[in-house]
Amino acid sequence: MSMSTAQPKSLFAYLKWAIISTFIGLALGAWLGWSTTGTLAGMLTVFFICAVLAVLEISLSFDNAIVNANKLKEMTPVWQHRFLTWGILIAVFGMRIVFPLLIVVIAANIGPIDAMIMAASRPEEYSRIMHEAHLPIAAFGGTFLMMVALTYFFDHDKEIHWVHWLESRLSRYAEIKGIEIAFVLLVMLVFSRFIEGEARTVFIVSAIYGLLTFLVVEVLGGFLDSTQEAAKATAQGGLGAFLYLEVLDASFSFDGVIGAFALTQNLFVIAIGLGIGAMYVRSMTIMLVERGTLTQYRFLEHGAFYAILILSVIMYVQTIYHIPEVITGLGGAALIGVALWSSIRWNRNSEAAE
User: Fold this and answer.
1) Cα 259 from chain centroid?
2) Which residue from 173, 277, 341, 354 lies 20 to 30 Å from 78 (Cα-Cα)?
3) Where does the chain cross the membrane (predicted)?
């Protein structure tokens, strides 16, 4: 069931809450800059960093919005609403605040309160711990996202192909059970050869956890969304998809949260900037579902999954070399832009043929 409405909403109607959160977030950022530095220059610096982080989050997560919209189409209206309300709380507060704190709690073996104090009083130490945790996070998130992308392409029921010569072959090979898992394990082993010492073990173990998480979410989602009785289906329908989308959101957030420390070491500035971006991603998700944009532009979804696949490889590469987050964001945005242009051109050719 879809989230269609009787009358089409304007672009402003979709972005209203995101725009409101932008004003509130940037105002908080300016206040934080003034209260911590006491200077106009410091206030403007923090204000600017919050704005840049919001743009970075939007560019990195636009493909996430497309994937979310594709999954939301299949969910019941109740679970659609829950994802777009509860989900935003989990995305903003869970991944942008609790997740970075949890990393420091585990890595430094300290309590949550001590981690908060460290974030406020010793941001350099906090940032160092976050960067040291980048290897297992990149391995876990890269593996999960790679499975997400490959599962889309290795699908024998997939009929629409953008890069036809490649996708048609991948669709045929999907009949080989576990081929995407074998591919991910092969990539994992290849990259592990370039990592030495204890770091190699950390990489492999984290990547395996990423693979297991994807498989567990898939199995759990299938179990929860299975319909043996109509009443049971009504009560449970969408829970599996909800869990899948939350883990997917978390995987997309890994790179942005870690990369944000390249711009600032202040946890609260990061939370404000990335939180604003997350609101826009949610707004775009709702718009894509209600307007049926994925149906109108047949290759847009393909571009998103190619962007996810490239992002997963970049996260693997980042365990060896540093790649600026701006490249990651622009690369994904460029792919989606090309997919949109291809879709528009296909629509024009189809209309001309008719």
Assistant:
1) 13
2) 277
3) 12-34, 40-62, 83-113, 133-154, 201-221, 258-282, 303-321, 327-344
Residue 101 buriedness (CB in 10 A; 0-12 / 13-18 / 19+): middle
For the entire predicted model, the pTM comes to 0.70
Distance CA 229, CA 147 (A): 31
Tokens of 162: 């953008």
Structure-token pair, residue 129: 């711990």
Hey, what amino acid is at 92? V
Residue whose tokens read 């610096």: 45
Which ranges constitute the DSSP H helices of the chain? Answer: 11-37, 40-72, 77-89, 99-108, 112-121, 123-132, 134-153, 164-173, 179-192, 198-224, 230-236, 239-260, 267-291, 293-296, 300-317, 325-353
pLDDT tens digits along 76-116: 777 777 877 787 777 667 777 777 777 777 767 778 888 88
Determine contact, residues 237/227, Cβ cutoff 8 Å: yes
Q: What angle do CA 153, 213, 101 make, to 5 degrees?
A: 120
Q: CB-based contacts of 244: which residues, under 8 Å, 6+ apart?
A: 71, 217, 218, 221
C-alpha distance from residue 145 to each of 180, 247, 309, 336 (Å): 12, 10, 7, 17
b/e code 205-237 from CB counts within 10 Å (16+ = b): ebbeebbebbeebeeebeebbeeeeeeeeeebb
Question: Is the separation of the CB atoms in 37 and 43 below 8 Å?
Answer: yes
284-323 pLDDT per residue, tens: 888 877 777 767 778 877 887 888 788 888 889 988 887 7
Q: Please provide the DSSP assignment of 313-340 as one string.
A: HHHHHTTTS---HHHHHHHHHHHHHHHH
Using the 8-state DSSP alphabet, how is residue 2 labeled? -
Residue type, 117: I
